[in-house]
Amino acid sequence: MVDIPEHLLKRAAQARAKALGISVEKALAEMKGQEDPTIVSKEPEVIAFEEVPTPAAETPAPVTETPAPVTEIPVPVTETPAPAAETISPVKEEHAAETTEKVAAVKIEQKPPAAKAPAPAKVDTPDEVDFAPEVKVTQRLLTVVKAKPIQKPVSEPVDKVNTWPHLMLPEFVSLMAMTAFLILLSAILQAPLLEEANPNVTPNPAKAPWYFLGLQELLSYWDPQIAGVMIPLVLGVVVWMAFPYIDRNPETHPSKRKFAIMFYTFFLAGAGVLTIIGVLFRGPGWNWTYPWIDGIWFDDLLDWIHFE
Amino acid sequence: MQKLSLRDRIKEARVSATDSFRGGKLMSSIFRPGSPFRKGYVDSPRNRSYVVMNNVLYHLHPVKVKRHGVRLSYTLCLGGLSFFLFIVLTITGIWLMFYFRPTELAYVDIQALQTDIAFGSLVRNMHRWGAHLMVLVVFLHMSRVFYHGAYKAPREFNWVIGVILLLLTLLLSFTGYLLPWDQLAIWAVTVGGNMAGYTPVIGAQAKFGLFAGLEATTATLLRFYVLHVLFLPFIIVIFMAVHFWRVRKDGGISGPL
Ligand code: HEM
To answer: Could you tell me which of A157, A256, B61, B97 has the fewest CB atoms within 10 Å of its CB?
Structure first.
């Protein structure tokens, strides 16, 4: 008999007491009391075995694959038209190759058939521990764990594929394509380099990098110092960051978030138009020009777009 | 004994040589179990998992991903390409640093790069067009995310990080713009810096801090240089790490729609 350290026993008793709403002492006593007869839980099953086969002997019942793993022990035995309880060994041989549980059950049978007092009714309670007691080891019921998952899965299982190769190959291909594209572009298009910087010579027009040109265009409509265009701009960035907290609509399908889609599309279109105007249609003095008439005043494109 | 043709014998020798190399101590010390570079790799579900799980790749990718997420049409690979462009820019940028001094000599250095140094022109072009491309791709990535509603719970915070990444990308691009020290650079930056000057309340200070003075000078050049090659990349890498980490912790890619 395995000695369970006192402190573990106590902890188990506490848990049990908490679960059952009884006092710790009682739980402890219960558990210790159970130690001897009940917990040698195998015997009842042996009895069951002895009882069941008798009817089974007539009807070679098909193997009922009972889903409940614990109770299944008596069942497999049924399938052999076992000639009563005495012939235990043949049963054993036949089933030894099956699942370990069944083997376990068979082992139990070898235990003293001198079934003790505990009522055969015990068989029906599936919560009984059902390890095969090795030699003289007895099991003790510490607690009963209901057959429930500890964690509840909150999401449905999703259809997944292996990252390698299903994601990494496309990634690799697009990476290669991008590299090829960039090298090709760089071989064809020369990056601009104008005269050396000279603070005394202001080019006309002086343009920001293209990604700020929409903004520069916007600023040209209102004198920024007067109209304070930067205020909505800074606010805009903050709002943009906070956007997920503002848009509380949980839907993701475009048909259910028409406003958001429209909003962003207008934003995109506006930024695009302003940028294109800034790049192509603004000449000296920030006056409106037509690229096909007056040429382009945008030095980033200097060396590779010539409309003249 | 059966006589092998010369060709077969060569093939056999080659196979046994590669096998003993790939199965040898060196290769197995470099590549962890499950790597396709090890001897005996076969294409099995288990090994497919190992390719990711037993490698440094596990820092970037989970073993499995949602099926719809690997369709090219979902992400268009835009986030991945933003990251990849950043890497290309880092590599070409480090290369450029060997030939560049952020002083009055900056302009001369760029000229020399274009004319005297092997591949100098190509690498400079790659760095420049790559930077423009990155701004574009990051912007497109943001648009993709928006149209998918991919910023919604639980991904709100990753959007916030994303906006920071966008700002950092713009800043990186903008600080780099000044470095060639030509008329284009100095005046574009002057325009941009003046715009910063219109910021409410702190406008003048922002502009002064940016220019290291009242206008673009070589002091500005040094400032932009340090920001461009050290400070901003350092910051953006940190934010990228958090960004990728959140993509995984938020349950992988969003969707399907
Ligand atoms: C340096 C810039 C950026 C890099 C390198 C980057 C990288 C990535 C990568 C690799 C992904 C995985 C999915 C995909 O490829 O689409 C991703 C997802 C995401 N990114 Fe970015 N990103 C950047 C900027 C941004 C910006 C500007 C935003 C938005 C303002 C953003 C918001 C998001 C969100 C919300 C996700 C999750 C999307 C989903 O689950 O479908 N990112 N990012």
So the answer is: A157
Residues B83 and B124 in one domain: yes
Q: Is B158 in the pocket of ligand 1 (CB under 6 A)?
A: yes
| Interchain proximity B254–A252, CB inside 8 Å | yes
Q: Are residues B239 and B137 in the same domain?
A: yes
- Nearest of B155, B148, B137 to residue B242 by alpha carbon: B155
- Residue B55 and residue B171 share a domain: no
Q: Classify residue A117 by its DSSP letter.
A: S
Residue pLDDT, tens place only, A34-83: 654 444 444 444 444 444 444 444 444 444 444 444 444 444 444 444 44
What pLDDT is stored for residue A2 in this prediction?
61
Q: Read off the pLDDT of residues B141-198 as tens digits, 9 standing for 90 and up.
A: 999 999 999 999 899 999 999 999 999 999 999 999 999 999 999 998 898 888 888 8
On whether both B11 and B39 belong to a single domain, the answer is: yes
Q: Are residues B50 and B83 in the same domain?
A: no
Name the phi and psi angles at A33, rounded to 5.
-65, -35
Q: Tell whether A63 lies on the interface with B, counting CB pairs under 8 A.
A: no
Lowest mean pLDDT among A118-122, A166-170, A261-265: A118-122
Range of the domain at B53: 6-59
Contact B165 CB / ligand 1 (< 6 Å)? yes
Whether B196 is in a domain gets the answer yes
Q: Is residue B64 part of a domain?
A: no
User: Could you tell me if residue B52 is inside a domain?
Assistant: yes
Considering only CB atoms, B186 lies closest to which of A193, A199, A225, namely A199
* Number of domains chain B contains: 2
Question: Which residue, judged by its Cα, is nearest atom 12 of ligand 1?
Answer: B79
Q: Distance, in angstroms, between A234 CA and closest chain B CA?
A: 8
Q: Per-residue pLDDT for B224 more than 50?
A: yes
Contact residues, B window 34-93, toward A, CB-based 8 Å cutoff: 45, 48-49, 51-52, 57, 61-70, 72, 77, 80-81, 84-85, 88
Q: B65 lies in a domain? A: no
C-alpha to C-alpha distance for A39 and A50, rounded to whole angstroms:
20
Residues B117, B24 share a domain? no
Interface test with A, best of B35, B183, B217, B257 (most A CBs within 10 A): B183
Window 114-153 of B: residues touching A by CB (8 A cutoff) are 114, 121-122, 124-126, 128-130, 132-133, 135, 139, 143, 146-153
Q: What string of DSSP letters covers A2-23?
A: PPPPHHHHHHHHHHHHHHHT--
Maximum alpha-carbon separation in chain A:
114
Rounded CA-CA distance A172/A167 in Å is 9
pLDDT of residue B88: 97
Going from the C-alpha of A10 to that of each of A28, A31, A146, A246, B217, the distances in angstroms are 7, 10, 21, 53, 78
